Amino acid sequence: MKMADEPIVVGIDIGTTKVCTLVARVEGGSSFRILGVGIEPSQGIRKGTIVDLQAASQAIARSIEKAERTSGMEITSALVSLAGSHVSSVNSRGVVGIAGRVIDQEDVFRALDAAQAVAIPHNREIIHVIQRGFVVDGQDGIRMPVGMHGYRLEVEAHIITAAASTVENLRQCVQASGVEVVQFVLNPLASAEVVLSDTERQMGVVVCDIGGGTTDMAIYIDGDIWHTMVLGIGGNHITSDIAHGLRLPLSQAEEIKKLYGHAVQSDIPENETFSTRIFGEERPVEISRRDLAMIIEARVEEIFDLILQEIKRSGYDGLLPAGVVLTGGSSLLPGIRTLASQVMGLPVRIAKPENLLGLTDQLNSPAYSTSVGLLSWAMMMSETPAAAGKRSRKKGGSSEFGDWFKSFLKRLLP
Ligand SMILES: Nc1ncnc2c1ncn2[C@@H]1O[C@H](COP(=O)(O)OP(=O)(O)OP(=O)(O)O)[C@@H](O)[C@H]1O
Ligand SMILES: [Mg+2]
């Protein structure tokens, strides 16, 4: 049964290849009914960063308009995805005194504020402050300290920052369509909400969203986020290798990749070919699928080498029995799972959004994990200020959360 006050949530995923605006109603407290979808090719965005304000604003505006038209609602605010190699993260600790009384939510916020007191340069903006766990009077491993007695509360926080100017540009592009950015959500954190199971997060897992221009990673251990990273490499690099290797225009290379591409050369029979037009030839020429796979394999191997290096650099490489969960548009490449597992020596599975209701035809693909994940974040934030604080809290106080949610609801278009 549908309840009148079930919240409506909006997410705008600004990717390197597409902008995807989704409007959804939360049903039964956990599933989404997609009411509006606006998917448009991106413009003016490279490796997750705006390089042409006007072009990017226009692409975002088209995506928002489409979602407004399909849903019949006017969008006034949204959660927006964020990526790019300007993002960085650090683990930090905040300590506050309690004086022997019962710990309340305000104390938790104070501890999180203290954790943010790390030296952050002026040109960086805090995007997320995520609590990883608490220590009360020296006892660690505490997941929820509210209600406990204590004298000293410590929080372990994961702080994600981004270049302030880049964030501001993105905000400006969205505002140009009359939409307020409620919060930016780092790509891999959005994707993780959709593709990771609770067991995986508990055991230790890394989520890798390989998109067009970026590879977004997050490591979860003991149920919490321990490490995040955005690499400026993705499916566009594979496409451009194909374009150079076979001497084709980029658009044709992209099409060939999707039609005939494979990540494991030895899986392709030697005699398989396809025909296409290349530069300098009047007629279509026959190209071996193996040659194509050779080009792709080299680049995909490099991507997984970089991912593995990053996992090792984090220092958590021995703590990931659940392995790697791959998502993002590039995880659609046949053979990618096998190659990922070979290169990284970890179990690998490929995941996409599931259990959606409503206008779901296009969203049933790994390319939309971040887009749908934004809706999950919006839902989490809408629950209660405390729940919002559990995963993330921007600088500026807890009272914001109750207020933004009201404005998140959109009025019906006439
Ligand atoms: N069937 C397919 N086989 C191989 N690659 C594919 C396939 N379908 C999509 N891709 C690739 O997926 C990439 C786009 O993925 P996605 O939509 O997740 O990126 P994005 O969110 O726009 O970009 P980013 O997150 O990197 O900013 C493109 O490089 C595209 O070529
Ligand atoms: Mg993406």
From TrEMBL:
GO terms for cellular component: cell division site; cytoplasmic side of plasma membrane. It is found in: Cell membrane. Keywords: Cell cycle, Cell division, Cell membrane, Membrane. Residues 9-195 form the SHS2 domain. Belongs to the FtsA/MreB family. Self-interacts. Interacts with FtsZ. GO terms for biological process: FtsZ-dependent cytokinesis. The lineage of its organism: Bacteria, Bacillati, Chloroflexota, Anaerolineae, Anaerolineales. The keyword Flavoprotein does not apply. It is a peripheral membrane protein. HAMAP family: FtsA. Cell division protein that is involved in the assembly of the Z ring. May serve as a membrane anchor for the Z ring. This is Cell division protein FtsA. Its main location: membrane. It comes from Anaerolinea thermophila (strain DSM 14523 / JCM 11388 / NBRC 100420 / UNI-1).
